[in-house]
Specification:
heterodimer; A: mainly alpha; 2 domains; two-stranded antiparallel ribbon; rod-shaped; B: alpha+beta; Helix Hairpins; Immunoglobulin-like; 3 domains; six-stranded mixed β-sheet; four-stranded antiparallel β-sheet; 64% helix; elongated
């Protein structure tokens, strides 16, 4: 068995270097594709949330208007009933005018009671005679948010992060291409520079692998 | 076979050693050349591979940014839709509360007017309810209403303010769409560049496997392709992606709010206030354009403010040319910057019309018509431009075309544009009297009455003539018109319009269209079947639809009398 030619050994070394760079590049491309896919999924989820949010806000606004409208009727009839009652206190309770006002007051009060069924009593404060619109809106939104995701921002942030990771991995492929260039030139040269280039290529491969692991593990 | 067994024939001639050496040298030289060629080829392949990796990186980056931009377009579209829906719901609610408040105010004023003590108490109750009602709607609070009992709602301001949110989100969506478009273009370019690099690599690979001079040609071609692709990639990389600044979009939304307010005020004939807000709108849009000089929506909005101001000046017989020229410049710039909306073309055509450049007006109106052949307003603008060019027959034919289309395929704006054209022609005639234009106005009015009041029935000559019209304050016991007048005191409830006629068709219908300050007040329209003699005197009542609500509004009125749609006479009166 004869000894291998040093030049052949160097050629084999370069071939292995090129193969390793190519395989690492392919792995990085595959990982980048996975991250891009994840980013698209996150975007879809975020958009779904954004649409749900828009629909919910519109629905809540419609409900607010409906509740407030009913409450306005309630408040007006109730206030008028009170005002008429105050007026009744000023006149003889045996007079026809008093009886007329009594009928009017009762009618207004009944109208108020009817309106009362058309707004959410949970937000009606009897003491201040107000309807807490903001609390109504907040509770409706909170209720909707308890059933479905109404915050698209985390998904969109996740999508952005995944895309950044994919871009970083793809940039490493470009760096690995520099290693390929080093090996190719080393293969052509016949002076000592070829060893330096080959070494540089190896360094780039090792550096790229380290960087890829760091990116994947979230260090970068 | 071993070398010992080699048999050399003594008869064979001795090989030429020099020839062999030369041959060996040639072969060695060829081998060196091949190795050198292959070395160059391999190096080129490595370089192009590196460039391909860079192109792939750039493509991935561009594609990612494009994906983000698409997402933003969809996200902002949802936000815009939500803002528009919420705004509409809030407007509906506020309008309901406003109506309630106005009704209370009206009831209260009647009670206060009566002077009775019981009514005064009741009026105080209503005042309390009015105060209560104002708490339910921002429209009935500061800054739109400063007194819950006696104040007047600043509706132009309120409605204009509701424009801000939807406009802002619309602009954000459009800005994201622009970014999407730019990155999409870049991503597509990088894919092409990658393809070119692949072609170059293929050529280098072929060159490495074949011999002869052809391999050199392959390499040269591959190098050219690689250089071209690299140059394209570099220029694409360096091309900036336009991102619309946030401040520009906010300034545009403010500008639109002021423009809307100005339009509202102009519609109410509050010219001085309207001009103030047109100017304020222009200032806001100037700010937007200072930040982003190539902002098409801001250019279009500013042009709109200029053209409306110019139009008002023109109707007031003032010099409008500079403003109209600004409007034209802005619309043209907006179109150059990518505003392909029908509105830009339509309004540019109108701006040219107002400026008096009818060929250009026709050009842009026709371009708009190509995009929207069902838009009645465009045909009517075209007719005006043709009339101004002296092509009167063509103008009438174009009005006829508009009318036919409005009958066959009525759009929701058909009546509106006939109505608007009546207003525009009337303003033109006030400023620049012209017989042909007067005839065109008659034609447009008849077609409007046909569409609006006669369900598209064709207007045929009736043979009827109205020989005189006059206005009166009342009737005597014999139902005869008394107290002729042209000016009526404020709060007049009813004005009588008398007319002498001949050849009235049997069972004819009168349509009296009443204009207040040249705009039709449909609540005053009189539409009746006539049961009169063929020749005689008739009258109609022009009465406020509101009872005990201050009578007819103050202002200048014009009444057009149509019989079976045919426009026959017109008269004017004033209520102080």
């Amino acid at each position: 068995m004869s000894e291998a030619n040093p030049s052949n050994r160097f050629g084999v070394f370069l071939a292995i270097g090129i193969a390793v760079a190519t395989v690492v590049g392919a792995i990085l491309a595959a990982r980048a594709a996975v991250y891009n896919d994840a980013a698209n999924d996150a975007d879809q989820a975020g958009l779904s949330s954004a649409i749900d949010l828009a629909l919910t806000q519109s629905a809540v606004e419609a409900q607010r208007a409906q509740n407030l409208s009913a409450f306005l009727q309630f408040a007006r009839h109730r206030r008028l009933a009170e005002l008429i009652s105050d007026q009744m206190d000023q006149i003889d309770s045996n007079s026809e005018a008093w009886a007329q006002l009594d009928r009017e007051s009762s009618a207004e009060w009944n109208k108020a009671v009817n309106s009362r069924y058309f707004f959410d009593a949970a937000f009606y404060d009897k003491f201040s005679n107000t309807f807490d619109q903001q609390a109504f809106i907040d509770s409706q939104l909170a209720e909707a948010a308890s059933l479905k995701d109404l915050n698209p921002d985390p998904e969109f942030s996740q999508a952005d992060d995944d895309r950044t990771t994919a871009a970083q991995l793809v940039s490493l492929i470009a760096v690995l291409a520099v290693a390929l260039l080093c090996f190719a030139i080393a293969n052509v040269l016949e002076n000592r520079l070829r060893y330096i280039l080959a070494g540089l290529g190896v360094l780039i491969i090792v550096g790229s692998i380290v960087a890829a692991v760091a990116i994947e593990s979230g260090v970068v | 076979m071993s070398t010992d067994e080699t048999i050399i024939s003594p008869a064979a001639p001795q090989p030429d050693r020099a020839e062999a050496v030369r041959s060996e040298q040639n072969r060695a030289a060829q081998d060196r050349a091949t190795r050198r060629f292959n070395a160059i080829t391999v190096t080129l392949i490595a370089i192009v591979t590196l460039l391909s990796a860079i192109a792939a990186f750039l493509q991935n980056d561009a594609s990612n940014r494009q994906s983000s931009a698409v997402r933003d377009v969809q996200r902002y579209a949802a936000a815009q839709l939500s803002a528009a829906l919420q705004s509409q719901q809030a407007l509906n609610f506020d309008a309901t509360v406003q109506r309630d408040w106005l009704n209370l105010a009206y009831e209260r004023s009647l009670l206060l007017d009566s002077g009775a003590e019981a009514d005064a108490v009741r009026a105080e109750h209503l005042a309390e309810l009015m105060r209560l009602t104002t708490g339910f709607s921002p429209m009935l609070q500061e800054p739109y209403l400063n007194d819950p009992l006696e104040g007047v709602i600043d509706l132009p301001r309120y409605y204009a303010d509701q424009e801000y949110e939807p406009t802002y989100w619309e602009q954000r969506r459009e800005a994201a769409a622009l970014i999407n478009e730019a990155w999409n273009k870049k991503a597509a370019t990088y894919v092409t560049v990658l393809t070119l690099f692949a072609v170059a690599l293929f050529l280098f690979g072929i060159a490495a496997t074949i011999g002869g001079t052809l391999r050199g040609a392959f390499v040269v071609l591959g190098v050219f392709i690689a250089i071209g692709a690299t140059a394209w990639m570099t220029s694409t990389l360096l091309a900036p992606v336009k991102v619309r600044p946030e401040q520009a979009m906010q300034a545009l939304a403010r500008g639109r709010v002021d423009l809307y307010r100005a339009e509202f005020l102009r519609g109410w004939r509050e010219k001085a206030e309207a001009l103030k807000y047109y100017q304020s709108s222009i200032d806001q849009l100037d700010e937007a354009l200072k930040i982003d000089p190539a902002y098409p929506a801001a250019l279009s909005e500013r042009a709109s403010a200029y053209v409306q101001t110019g139009e008002q000046r023109l109707w007031d017989r003032e010099d409008a040319a500079p403003l109209l020229q600004y409007a034209i410049d802005d619309y043209r710039a907006a179109i150059e910057q990518g505003d392909e909306s029908i509105y830009a073309l339509w309004n540019l055509g109108w701006a040219y019309f107002l400026l008096g450049d009818q060929p250009e007006s026709l050009r842009y109106t026709d371009r708009a018509l190509e995009q929207a052949p069902q838009q009645i307003g465009l045909y009517l603008n075209r007719a005006l431009a043709l009339r101004a060019m002296g092509q009167v027959d063509e103008a009438f034919a174009t009005v006829q075309e508009a009318y036919e289309r409005a009958i066959d395929q009525p759009t929701s704006s058909s009546n509106f544009y006939f109505h608007a054209t009546i207003f525009d022609i009337t303003q033109q005639l006030r400023a620049f009297p012209n017989d042909d234009l007067q005839k065109l106005l008659k034609d447009v009015k008849e077609k409007y009455v046909s569409l609006r009041y006669r369900k598209g029935q064709r207007i045929e000559p009736t043979g009827c003539e109205i020989t005189a019209v006059a206005f009166f304050q009342g009737l005597n016991e014999n139902n005869e018109l008394i107290d002729p007048a042209e000016k009526f005191v404020a709060s007049t409830e009813t004005v009588y319009m008398g007319f002498d006629y001949t050849n009235l068709p049997v069972g004819g219908e009168i349509e009296a269209v009443v204009y207040l300050f040249d705009k039709e007040d449909e609540t005053l329209t009189v539409q009746e079947r006539l049961g009169l003699e063929p020749i005689g005197t008739g009258y109609i009542r022009i009465t406020s639809p509101f009872i005990k609500a201050g009578g007819l509004s103050s202002g200048s009125y014009r009444v057009d009398i149509h019989i079976n749609g045919e426009y026959l006479a017109s008269g004017e009166f004033t209520v102080e």
